[in-house]
Design brief:
Blueprint: H1 3-20, E1 34-35, E2 45-47, H2 49-57, H3 61-69, E3 78-84, E4 88-93, H4 95-108, E5 122-126, H5 138-156, E6 160-167, H6 172-188, H7 203-216, H8 225-249, E7 257-260, H9 262-266, H10 269-279, E8 283-286, E9 289-292, E10 303-306, H11 314-328, E11 333-339, H12 346-355, E12 363-368, E13 371-375, E14 378-380, H13 392-399, H14 401-409, E15 417-420, H15 421-424, H16 432-452, H17 468-477, H18 480-490, H19 495-513, H20 524-548
Parallel strand pairs: 5-6, 5-11, 6-7, 11-12, 13-15
Antiparallel strand pairs: 1-2, 2-4, 3-4, 8-9, 9-10, 13-14
Amino acid sequence: MLISHEIDARVRAAVEEAQRRDLLPTVAPPDVVVERPQKPEHGDFATSLPMRLARAARMKPLEIAERLVSLMPGDDVFERVWAAPPGFINFVLHPRWLGRQVDEVRRAGEGYGNLDVGAGTRVQVEYVSVNPTGPIHVGHARGAVLGSALAEVLAAAGYDVTREYYVNDAGSQMDAFYKSLYARYAQALGQDVPLPPEGYQGQYMVELGQELARELGDRFLAMPQEQAVRETGEIGLGRMLECIQQDLEMIGVRFDVWFRERSLYQSGQYNKAMGLLRQGGHTAEREGALWFTSTALGEDKDNVLVRSSGLPTYFASDVAYHYNKFVERGLQRVINLWGADHQGHVPRMKAVVGALGIDPSRLHIIIVQMVSLRRGDEVVKVSKRTGELITLRELVEEVGPDACRFFFLARSPESQMDFDMELATKQSADNPVYYVQYAHARIAGILRLARERGIDWSDGDVSLLAHEAELALVRKMVLLPELVESITRTLEPHSLPHYALELATAFHWFYQQCRVVSSVPEDAAITKARLKLTEGARVVLARTLHLMGVNAPDRM
């Protein structure tokens, strides 16, 4: 049971009953928004519906709240329901209900938190999609972690999720990559072939050229240069994609689909998309170029689709790609995670999706801001090894994949973040990922001890759980399904690490306040009840870490 849905149903029923009894005027009520009060004394959950209903009802919010509360008495789910100024309705969960949830969690096991709110809706999450012209850098990794965690939560909520990487393997950037690689290959064989002016300068290109020279010899030097550039470039593209894939797998990021940009042109879908825009009257030819007339749709300026040279822009490729997503593949919802440099691209993308006849609300674009690295107070700008931008591989080798994922997830994507590499490697409570993983390891250790002592807690009586710390822990545990449902609406997976920290803190407090495994015979019953609670806490904490893509260690 989602508690927020239960409150929603009860409040709606109370409004209908109040209107039937003429306690409220017959007006359409607003949506019931269920919140978590910041202060425990305000209850476990609350709704401000009376305040939002007051104007239409022409009544004081507190009076509305009191009349609705009179129709919602406490029961075996909510111990107390009351009205509070200026017009809140507060709810406190019943201790007996909380105790029963421990058994529910244990029964659900690894499936705890799974929902069916998605009902099989086809959703695509596209993330990373870095040009395959170089290795994955730290800035790209943040979007990779956010995208993979979001996809995991959506799948847990019952959506049919496709995780996709868009491979930009067409256009000018690939031409520059191909020419750069051929130059480095030829140079490795002693040839005086200059790097093109727009070429890629990185040390990784020198190493890739040397690798091709060692493995393939000088066979490409005998070819016409144009053919050699194309063939060495194709080999290099394949290896760069392998490198990107391997680096992403180091932090548990995988994709169902690696979609090639060039396939849009080869399949004719690019022409279909451009044809739809022309048929809809959304294009104009000016100065030899083809423009998308986005000003007619409320945008500040029109945007070039095809340059006067006849070459399509990146925007035109994106139009064809989204035509493929929505029309050719029939995806019901598309979520793109883009870098901060794409901020200005969002309005025109929404506009062109609408011009293709697709409801723009089906497209969600999340902008992921930049990452700064530091070690304590020292800002880290470049790699010590190469003097270039720090790659994802280098970061993982220094701080580990779990710290990478936890830290990148811990801030909302629209906020810039500092990644403290020194903190990420600390084995202390100061390091949040260590703190959370230590809680899981501590739980596993308690359960091992109980098994070694031959304790069978399967018949533990959860009604004995009455200590403040016990109930506080269960109150945190039952929030995981609520969090999963919330993330499907807000698309904000950064709430996961915050929840994990709160849950770990609740467990550590319970551990300090309540002796779990007692050797005193008179404590056998409470020991079994607390072991049930401990086992339930392990299930929820492990599930939370799994959704984040972070390991749940049994020993540390």
